Amino acid sequence: MEPSGLRVGVPRNYYFDHVDPEVESAVRSGIGRLEALGVRLVDVEIPMTRFVQGVQWGLTVPEASAYHEPTVQAVSEIYAADVRVLLEAGRRMSAVDYLRAQRARTLIRREWSRLMETVDVIAAPAVPVTAVPVGQEGVTWPDGTTESVGGAYVRLSAPANITGLPSLIVPVGEDRAGLPTGMQLISRAGGDGVVLGLGGAFES
Q1: Helix/strand/coil percent split, the chain, to 5
Q2: Which GO terms describe its molecular function (predicted)?
Q3: Cα–Cα distance measured from residue 45 to residue 64, given in angstroms and rounded to the nearest whole number
């Protein structure tokens, strides 16, 4: 697929909030390279962002608990303590809470479907930080807020996971420590060929 003429959405919110400056710089440089390929950049507003984390955890934790339940009961020692805590939390979530998360997911999908009528692809960071040292448990941002490393790593992939939209990550460089940085390309439902074509053009 020729990238020329594709509308690439650049998020004004969510994806560049609480992102390491080196990651942001690499991704914005990658977006500039997309523009050099002939795409048209469009500023976009990501919808319903305040619900993303709640829906992500409200769905994945109980589903993971259900999937892993036989193994946890048979050989729980193979799971790290932090994983066991999440799996136990999932067993304690009510069906009402799970269905509430599913309803919110439906609303988020609907709003993303409207968003994707205005652009062909969204370009954004894949993760907010590069790989942290083994044993580091949290990330602290300049405004003083903190989040777990696991929470940070899934935060920017959550919208594509929730909506089921095709997403591709392409490398856009390395930080000062030589650790790789990725940019994700998200397209509308059924747009797998669009992100694969644009990713291929970007990499070549």
Answers
A1: 50, 20, 30
A2: catalytic activity
A3: 31
The arrangement of secondary structure in 7-203, i.e. its CATH architecture, is Alpha-Beta Complex (3.90)
Structure tokens at 107: 């609303």
Cα–Cα distance between 192 and 189 in angstroms, integer? 8
Type of residue found at 89: A
3-state SS track over 76-134? HHHCCHHHHHHHHHHHHCCHHHHHHHHHHHHHHHHHHHHHCCCCCEEEEECCCCCCCCC
The predicted-structure confidence for 120-165, as pLDDT tens digits, reads as follows 999 999 999 999 999 898 999 999 999 999 899 999 999 999 999 9
How buried is 158 (Cβ within 10 angstroms: 0-12 exposed, 13-18 middle, 19+ buried)? buried
- Say what the pTM is: 0.90
Amino acid, single-letter form, for residue 80: A
Coil vs helix vs strand at 180: strand
